[in-house]
């Protein structure tokens, strides 16, 4: 029977694991050995699955944050500094690492977003025929006409915040597709990113602003028709198509703004539509962009013609928002719904006013010319000055004053009691992207609070902007209409099923909209722009992350982008023909 003898056991005099240096056999003396202290916990001897992760992430990676101790003496795997000799066993792909370079995800995402049916609306106001007609929605350079659909009945292409689905397995909430939203503007390779600001940082800002000073008011408004307050699901009214013109000119093209700038009334100029988006930026999901022009000591916040500020979103904040599709006749895609909601708002505001009762202000509409043949929609432009200065800013040169062009849609009771008119639209409560909204025709009268609460959840960003716009304009009341399709399959015919009245400040309070936080965001962005030299800048909301980025752009970058988009649009129109 074979005998068995125990191998020699070497005691470690250093009180550590493994043989000591004096007792290691000669055959093993040239082999490196990772020493461990007996006080250390050995989590694993060898983890071959994390070999490359250790090389890529390094001490500051995710594993370092998970395994690090309070004293910061552990490495990426939580092993103490006494095991530093173990690096001799680590294999690093030296050549592979040197050949690898990180590409800016923002630019990559933006570059891929310019395909057909993605990004923002591409119609540049060349008068494509609307199947049902609509209210003219004119831009500053003459030119954007928002219509319900093309002349052939197909919805307009493009869309604000379209999506690309990517499947993801699992169950419950994890089986929903991961959607990647598109950028509202293409980030050019020559653009220089100056600042990246997260929403968590924006939410901490705060600035109290006093009541504004009224500078002037221009235009003509009509009286609100109180008969629409009695509209309900049993006494509904069809939405009419009214051909009237309403302008949405950008800041730099406003002649009143130019005259106020010449008088040095303020050093920041913008409109309520742009300012409301900036003040409620932390509620945004879709991408948007603001063009910032620095001229001398003045800063102008502009929008791009035909950009996201010219359209109304639908269910932007829903847990399962409307998804994009490749079908050209999709009526519930983000693009089609946004265009539908835009002309619903315009026609509803024109229908609920009494055109026999009007109030014309001393200063006429600054954008309407005598060559126009279509009548003007009820709208008054109210120019107001806000003081955004801090208490520590005593000198006049340090103060920040902002002139805002606000809009009121009508008046009621007394002629100086202004109101704003907005509309929510229901497309199909059973369709994908409806946000689990209840059927308005069966629930609006009996459970109006539940309907409004659902809309506040699914359209948090849109309703917050409307409330802020009403507060900026000094409106006493905000009229909120509920517009539903006559047939869920027909996006051209709609019915007014209800109208609600809200106090703008109370409505903002119900949605937890902090005006002080909004003014803090505005002041922060203005301060960033004031520190920059004269030129053009673009503030962009990242479509897939809760943050905004400030870019410095060449002077002709946006004009070249517009020309490129127009050329692409002409080519696609020719292909459709």
UniProtKB/TrEMBL annotation:
Biased composition annotated in UniProt, kind: Gly residues: 136-150, 158-168
Keywords, in A-Z order: Cytoplasm, Initiation factor, Protein biosynthesis, RNA-binding
Main location: cytoplasm
Region (Disordered): 1-21, 51-77, 111-168
Example GO molecular function: translation initiation factor activity
Pfam families registered for this protein in UniProt: eIF-3_zeta
GO biological process: cap-dependent translational initiation; formation of cytoplasmic translation initiation complex
Location of this chain's protein in the cell: Cytoplasm
A single Gene Ontology CC term: eukaryotic translation initiation factor 3 complex
InterPro entries registered for this protein in UniProt: eIF3d
Region (RNA gate): 308-322
Role of this protein: mRNA cap-binding component of the eukaryotic translation initiation factor 3 (eIF-3) complex, which is involved in protein synthesis of a specialized repertoire of mRNAs and, together with other initiation factors, stimulates binding of mRNA and methionyl-tRNAi to the 40S ribosome. The eIF-3 complex specifically targets and initiates translation of a subset of mRNAs involved in cell proliferation. In the eIF-3 complex, eif3d specifically recognizes and binds the 7-methylguanosine cap of a subset of mRNAs.
Subunit structure: Component of the eukaryotic translation initiation factor 3 (eIF-3) complex.
The record's note on its domains: The RNA gate region regulates mRNA cap recognition to prevent promiscuous mRNA-binding before assembly of eif3d into the full eukaryotic translation initiation factor 3 (eIF-3) complex.
Family that this chain belongs to: Belongs to the eIF-3 subunit D family.
Protein name: Eukaryotic translation initiation factor 3 subunit D
Origin organism lineage: Eukaryota, Fungi, Dikarya, Basidiomycota, Agaricomycotina
């Amino acid at each position: 029977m074979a005998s068995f003898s125990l191998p020699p056991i070497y005691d470690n005099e250093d009180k550590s694991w493994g043989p000591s240096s004096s007792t290691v056999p000669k055959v093993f003396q040239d082999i490196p050995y990772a020493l461990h202290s007996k006080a250390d916990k050995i989590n694993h001897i060898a983890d071959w699955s994390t070999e490359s992760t250790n090389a890529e992430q390094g001490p500051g990676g995710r594993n370092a944050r998970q395994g690090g101790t309070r004293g910061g003496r552990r490495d990426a795997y939580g092993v103490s500094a006494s095991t530093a000799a173990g690096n001799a066993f680590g294999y690093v792909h030296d050549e592979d690492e040197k050949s690898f370079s990180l590409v800016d995800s923002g630019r990559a995402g933006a570059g891929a977003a310019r395909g057909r049916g993605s990004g923002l609306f591409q119609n540049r106001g060349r008068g494509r025929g609307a199947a049902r007609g609509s209210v003219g929605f004119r831009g500053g350079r003459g030119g954007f006409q928002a219509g319900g659909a093309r002349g052939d009945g197909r919805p307009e292409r493009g869309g604000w915040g379209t999506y690309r689905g990517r499947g993801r397995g699992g169950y419950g909430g994890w089986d929903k597709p991961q959607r990647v939203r598109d950028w509202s503007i293409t980030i050019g390779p020559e653009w220089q990113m100056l600042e990246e600001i997260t929403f968590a940082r924006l939410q901490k800002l705060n600035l109290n602003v006093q009541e504004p000073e009224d500078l002037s008011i221009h235009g003509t408004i009509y009286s609100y028709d109180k008969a629409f307050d009695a509209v309900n699901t049993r006494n509904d009214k069809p939405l009419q198509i009214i051909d009237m013109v309403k302008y949405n000119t950008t800041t730099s093209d406003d002649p009143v703004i130019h005259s106020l700038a010449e008088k040095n009334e303020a050093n920041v100029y913008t409109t309520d539509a742009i300012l409301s988006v900036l003040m409620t930026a932390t509620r945004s999901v879709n991408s948007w962009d603001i063009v910032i022009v620095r001229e001398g000591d003045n800063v102008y916040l502009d929008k791009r013609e035909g950009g996201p500020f010219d359209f109304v979103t639908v269910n932007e904040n829903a847990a399962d928002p409307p998804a994009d599709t490749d079908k050209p006749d999709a009526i519930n895609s983000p693009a089609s719904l946004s265009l539908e909601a835009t002309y619903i708002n315009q026609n509803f505001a024109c229908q609920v006013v009494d055109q026999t009762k009007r109030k014309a202000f001393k200063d006429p509409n600054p954008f309407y010319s005598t060559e126009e043949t279509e009548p003007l929609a009820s709208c008054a432009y109210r120019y107001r000055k806000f003081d955004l200065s801090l208490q520590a800013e005593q000198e006049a040169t340090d103060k920040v004053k902002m002139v805002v062009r606000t809009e009121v849609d009508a008046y009621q009771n007394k002629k100086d009691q202004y109101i704003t008119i907005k509309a929510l639209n229901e497309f199909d409560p059973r369709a994908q992207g409806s946000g689990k909204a209840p059927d308005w025709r069966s629930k609006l009268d009996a459970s109006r609070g539940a309907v409004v609460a659902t809309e506040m959840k699914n359209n948090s960003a849109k309703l917050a902007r409307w409330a802020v716009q009403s507060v900026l304009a000094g409106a006493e009341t905000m009229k909120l209409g509920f517009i539903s399709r006559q047939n869920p399959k027909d996006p051209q015919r709609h019915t007014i099923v209800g109208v609600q009245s809200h106090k703008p400040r109370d409505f903002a309070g119900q949605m937890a909209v902090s005006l002080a936080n909004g003014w803090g965001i505005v002041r922060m962005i203005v301060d960033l722009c004031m520190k920059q030299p004269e030129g053009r800048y673009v503030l962009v909301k990242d479509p897939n992350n809760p943050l905004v980025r400030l870019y410095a752009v060449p002077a002709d970058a946006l004009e070249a982008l517009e020309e490129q988009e127009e050329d692409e649009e002409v080519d696609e129109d020719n292909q459709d023909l």
